[in-house]
């Protein structure tokens, strides 16, 4: 019963994580400018990866693999938003103007 | 005339290659020379004779050390060429001309937080490469990435303080020099180039030293181009 519950929870987490990855990928392909795309990829990826890794950790049970997964989660949670921040900041300081409805027809 | 000559050379070389390829055994044939005595010998005695418990490392650094030496020289030569071409003929600007954006405190803190872990992992990959998958080239790339990250975050003056120009000059050539030393040591001690000296622990430490040298060499090959750009921007 417990095993069935844990497997079900892991499956739900992994599927939800895949949903976040899908949203991030669609955002990368479809959103109008650099800042929106950075937002889509670097926000969705950590959530998706953490959900999938948590699911994998539940499946692996309390052992060395779970500790490794915790370390991986910490790494992703720290690095991915930082990368997004650094990219957006570099774009801003390089003079890249954000897309709005008013300047939608101007060249980027 | 020239293109006709080129075509002739290409056809001749292609013909030679095709003739060679047509004589190859079919892929995966169990009676081909590769699957015969050579691989079996490596698997049987490679771990003892090769000086490294990891067979890939034993092959890389012992059985085909000449090949790896060639690779190290190619990487070194590529770095030197990039440095020579990249720095040639650039106008020398004063450091204050380029407006520099201050480093984001977020990036600064995160790089400082992660740097020791990245360094530890790089060293682990380099030193454990003779037991586990990994090794000098891979660990060196991780180490080079760390140097690039630190170069982005630290001020150029502090980075230059950490890595003085003279030291960089020698570290860049560390891999090539260590390989040459190993080859000559082997020649002096056993009469064969790249042969590992006896006893076994000495041979194994030579392998670990080679891995370390390859790691440092590839780290500075990766970081060297970036650092040269940085020096160019700030000089």
Could you characterize what this model shows?
- The complex is a heterodimer of chains A (108) and B (235).
- Chain A has 108 residues and is mostly helical.
- Chain A has one domain (2-93).
- In chain A, 80% of the residues lie in helices and 0% in strands.
- Chain A has three helices and no strands.
- The termini of chain A are far apart.
- By secondary structure, chain B is mainly α.
- Chain B has one domain (35-92, 103-234).
- Chain B has ten helices and no strands.
- Chain B has helices spanning 2-22, 34-49, 55-63, 65-87, 105-127, 136-153, 156-162, 165-172, 174-190, 200-234.
- In chain B, helix 4 (65-87) packs antiparallel against helix 9, helix 4 (65-87) packs parallel to helix 10 and helix 9 (174-190) packs antiparallel against helix 10.
- The longest helix of chain B has 35 residues, at 200-234.
- Chain B is globular.
- The model of chain B has no long low-confidence stretch (mean pLDDT 81).
- The interface between A and B is small, with 8 and 7 residues.
Offer a few descriptive terms.
A: 108 residues; mainly alpha; 3 helices; B: 235 residues
Q: For the largest interface in this structure, which chains are involved and how many residues does each contribute?
A: A-B, 8 and 7 residues
Number of helices of chain A: 3
End-to-end gap of chain B: 49 Å
Share in helix of chain B: over 70%
- From the alpha-carbon coordinates, what is the Rg of chain B to the nearest angstrom? 23 Å
Count the domains of chain B: 1
Order of helices and strands of chain A: HHH
Output the number of helix runs of chain B: 10
Order of helices and strands of chain B: HHHHHHHHHH
What is the alpha-carbon Rg of chain A in Å? 18 Å
| Bulk shape of chain B | globular
Helicity level of chain A, as a percent range? over 70%
Low-confidence stretches of chain A: none
SSE-based structural type of chain B = mainly alpha
Overall 3D geometry of chain A? Answer: elongated
């Amino acid at each position: 019963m417990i095993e069935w519950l844990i497997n079900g929870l892991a499956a739900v987490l992994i599927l939800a994580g895949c949903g976040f990855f899908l949203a991030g990928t669609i955002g990368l392909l479809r959103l109008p400018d650099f800042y929106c795309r950075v937002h889509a990829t670097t926000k969705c990826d950590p959530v998706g990866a953490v959900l999938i890794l948590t699911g994998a950790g539940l499946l692996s049970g309390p052992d060395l693999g779970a500790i490794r997964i915790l370390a991986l989660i910490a790494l992703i949670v720290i690095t991915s938003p930082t990368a997004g921040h650094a990219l957006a900041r570099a774009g801003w300081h390089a003079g890249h103007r954000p897309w709005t409805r008013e300047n939608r027809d101007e060249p980027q | 005339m020239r293109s006709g000559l080129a075509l002739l050379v290409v056809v001749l070389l292609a013909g030679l290659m095709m003739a060679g390829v047509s004589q190859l055994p079919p892929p995966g044939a169990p009676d081909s020379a590769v699957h015969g005595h050579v691989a079996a010998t490596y698997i049987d005695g490679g771990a003892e004779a090769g000086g490294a418990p990891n067979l890939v490392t034993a092959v890389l650094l012992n059985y085909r050390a000449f090949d790896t030496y060639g690779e190290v020289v190619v990487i070194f030569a590529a770095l030197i060429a990039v440095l020579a071409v990249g720095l040639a003929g650039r106008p020398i600007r004063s450091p204050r001309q380029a407006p520099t954006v201050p480093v984001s405190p977020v990036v600064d803190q995160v790089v400082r937080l992660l740097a020791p872990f990245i360094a530890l992992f790089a060293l682990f990959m380099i030193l454990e490469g003779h037991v586990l998958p990994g090794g000098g080239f891979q660990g060196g790339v991780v180490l080079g990435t760390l140097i690039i990250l630190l170069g982005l975050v630290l001020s150029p003056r502090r980075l230059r303080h950490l890595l003085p120009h003279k030291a960089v000059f020698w570290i860049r050539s560390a891999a090539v020099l260590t390989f040459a030393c190993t080859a000559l040591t082997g020649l002096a001690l056993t009469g064969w180039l790249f042969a590992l000296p006896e006893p076994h622990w000495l041979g194994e430490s030579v392998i670990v030293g080679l891995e370390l040298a390859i790691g440092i060499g590839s780290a500075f090959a990766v970081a060297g181009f970036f650092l040269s750009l940085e020096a160019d921007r700030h000089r």
